[in-house]
Amino acid sequence: MSKVAVIIAAAGAGRRFGGQVKKPFAQIDNRPVFIRTIELFVTRDDVCQVILVVSPDDYDVVREKYAANLMFMDVQLVKGGNERCESVKLALEEVADDADLIAVHDAVRPCVLESWIDKLFARAAETGAAIPAAPLTGTIKRVADGLVTETVSREGLYEAQTPQVFAADVLRAAYQALEGTGRPTDDAQVVEQAGHPVAIVETDRRNLKITTPFDLTLAGAVLRTLTKGKKSSGPRSPFDEAQW
């Protein structure tokens, strides 16, 4: 079984979310989004390390307010950079040497199915790079100045999601080669630019990224659906009694 280090990216500015609270720290049913996301990984036998990357502006607040939670879950806190790729690069410096795979996951994607994570870890161990992706289902329009300029075929088009999982040496080498190559929007793009093929595990739109307040409401509904059976038939989570 591969050992996996997980980087949880929570350093974004979240300008589209608005309000006084950044989206990783917003709450679903009285629990912060980023805590719900961390819980996807910390109880897995194949995860050897979890790193939470936050903005330098948030570092002291998170360290103090959530100290008990981070200690209980054995999560390492790291200061990020101005861009996502900078934050991931800083987190990579803290990844354990014995990690075979590195997964990078958005702190604001708390609705990942365990079966998807299983498949992603297995696919990345096989190919060196694997990401979850959902096929586009709507009609896609290209727009300029408020007018449709083209209807784009959705055949073969997928929306990339996270966690994105890579062989440790593949991701490290890709980031070392990144200097001066622009601002990639996800880690798969960094690996693609380095010339390594990226496989996909097909998922669906339940793996949503919380970007707006409406997404927060939607994520809450998805989580309640996913956990309804677990709560009625299984034991409580070891984190249910933690202080938020």
Please give a structural write-up.
This protein has 244 residues and is an alpha/beta fold. It has one domain: Spore Coat Polysaccharide Biosynthesis Protein SpsA, Chain A. It is built from eight helices and twelve strands. Helix 6 crosses helix 7. The longest helix has 21 residues, at 213-233. It is globular and about 50 Å long. The two termini are 33 Å apart. The model is unreliable at 14-19 and 232-244 (pLDDT under 50).
Task: For the structure shown, list the relevant keywords.
Spore Coat Polysaccharide Biosynthesis Protein SpsA, Chain A; alpha/beta; two-stranded antiparallel ribbon; 244 residues; eight-stranded mixed beta sheet; 24% strand; single chain; globular
Secondary-structure map:
Blueprint: E1 4-10, E2 27-28, E3 31-32, H1 33-38, E4 47-54, H2 56-65, H3 67-73, E5 75-79, H4 84-92, E6 101-106, H5 114-127, E7 129-135, E8 140-144, E9 147-152, E10 158-160, E11 164-167, H6 168-176, H7 187-193, E12 199-202, H8 213-233
Parallel strand pairs: 1-4, 1-6, 4-5, 7-12
Antiparallel strand pairs: 2-3, 6-11, 7-10, 7-11, 8-9
Helix pairs in contact: 6-7
| Helical content (DSSP H or I, runs of 4+) | 25-40%
Q: What is the CATH homologous superfamily assignment?
A: Spore Coat Polysaccharide Biosynthesis Protein SpsA, Chain A
- Estimated radius of gyration: 18 Å
Q: Tell me what the CATH architecture is.
A: Alpha-Beta Complex
Largest sheet properties: 8 strands, mixed
For this structure, the CATH topology is: Spore Coat Polysaccharide Biosynthesis Protein SpsA, Chain A
Taken in chain order, the helices and strands follow as: EEEHEHHEHEHEEEEEHHEH
Residue-averaged pLDDT? 89
Q: Got a strand count?
A: 12
Runs in which pLDDT lies below 50 for 5 or more consecutive residues are 14-19, 232-244
Approximately how much beta-strand content do the residues carry?
15-25%
Structural class, by secondary structure, is alpha/beta
Judging from the principal axes of the Cα atoms, what is the shape? globular
Q: How many angstroms does the end-to-end distance come to? A: 33 Å
> DSSP helix count?
8
State the domain count.
1
